[in-house]
Sequence to fold (65 residues):
Amino acid sequence: MLEGSYQLGLSDLLDQNLSCYEYFHGLPRNIQEQIERRDIGSFQEMQDFVARRMGRSAKEEQRNG
Fold:
């Protein structure tokens, strides 16, 4: 972590970043719950996590479909 910086918690992140708030609340509830259980500290980290999770879901659907 950079000197003089600190990592935001999820509630801080959602309070301070409108784009992040809208993105988070637009996600399916199960993904929101997974994010809440993780130590997500940035919007980029949240987007990366969701991309990985959604990628897995899409692959699982293709296998099962």
Summary: The first helix runs from residue 10 to 16. The two ends are 43 Å apart (CA to CA). The chain has one domain: 10-64.
